[in-house]
Specification:
The protein has about 260 residues and is mostly helical. The protein is built from 14 helices and 3 strands. A hairpin with a 5-residue loop joins strand 2 and strand 3. The protein starts with 13 loop residues before the first helix and ends in a 10-residue tail after the last helix.
Length: about 260
């Protein structure tokens, strides 16, 4: 079962608010049923069954505007899906999941369209930067550099067969970011943890989880302590090593060690 990010700000988005309820539900259905790069093979009868009504498909495509394109095979492609789920894909990346997404985009023959879309976004960003007044008015997204670290890690996690660990990792990171699914006690991102130079890789989380299990330690309890008390993160260089040291203070279950 695929786990994907959802945009909690869509409910305030004028475009989304103006969609009919049927179109909202259809859009969410396609988001769930598309493949790893946002491509959906239309099954209109099944989609209408789940929506519960007949759909004016031509009107839906018009209202989707540049959010939807069609491939040469007639499949539907959600053009903003990849950027939202994984960040910008780089052909030079050594990440196997990232390379698999690029390969799939090329298979659907939309890789060049994706690249053009990314370059267009970059050009728009350059214009914004040149406009000093707009830059002053615009409040920067402080979470961007931290998301850039975790996007590839989430991609790698999704390839793992250890679904329990994947869910645990998503919860762990989600609490740090204070996501809708995994809120923390601060009710805001724990920047004092995010600012630790070496964040938690998925591979490190697997090792931490294994050691914590041996010693009967709940990782989430440790994370909550760090979230609620800034001093536990002060001066730390590695989130993984910090928590691992805490875990190792507990004896291995069934021993006096």
């Amino acid at each position: 079962m695929a786990k994907r990010f959802t945009d909690t700000q869509k409910w305030e988005d004028d475009w989304y608010m103006n969609l009919s309820n049927d179109f909202k539900l259809l859009y969410q259905y396609i988001l769930d049923k598309c493949d790893a790069v946002g491509v959906w093979k239309p099954n209109r009868r099944l989609a209408e069954f789940h929506v519960g009504n007949e759909i004016d498909w031509n009107q839906f495509m018009l209202e989707m505007d540049d959010r939807l394109d069609t491939t040469k095979k007639g499949y539907w492609w959600l053009t903003k899906f990849v950027e939202f789920q994984y960040g910008t894909l780089d052909e030079g990346s050594g990440s196997k999941p990232i390379q698999s997404y690029i390969k799939l985009l090329k298979k659907h023959e939309v890789w060049e369209d994706y690249r053009k879309g990314i370059n267009s976004l970059k050009e728009k960003e350059k214009v914004k930067v040149k406009d000093k007044e707009k830059v002053k008015e615009k409040k920067g997204d402080e979470l961007t550099p931290y998301r850039d670290f975790y996007f590839p890690e989430f991609a790698q996690a999704r390839e793992s067969d250890n679904k329990s660990a994947v869910q645990g990792y998503f919860r762990f990171v989600g609490m740090i970011f204070n996501t809708e699914d995994y809120p923390n006690a601060l009710n805001k991102p724990a920047f004092h943890i995010l600012k630790i130079p070496n964040q938690m890789k998925f591979t490190d989380y697997l090792k931490l989880s294994s050691e914590a299990k041996r010693r009967g330690v709940n990782i989430i309890d440790l994370l909550n302590s760090m979230i609620n008390n800034r001093k536990y993160a002060e001066g730390k260089q590695s989130l993984y090593l910090t928590l691992l040291n805490w875990v190792k203070k507990e004896p291995v279950k069934g021993t006096n060690l």
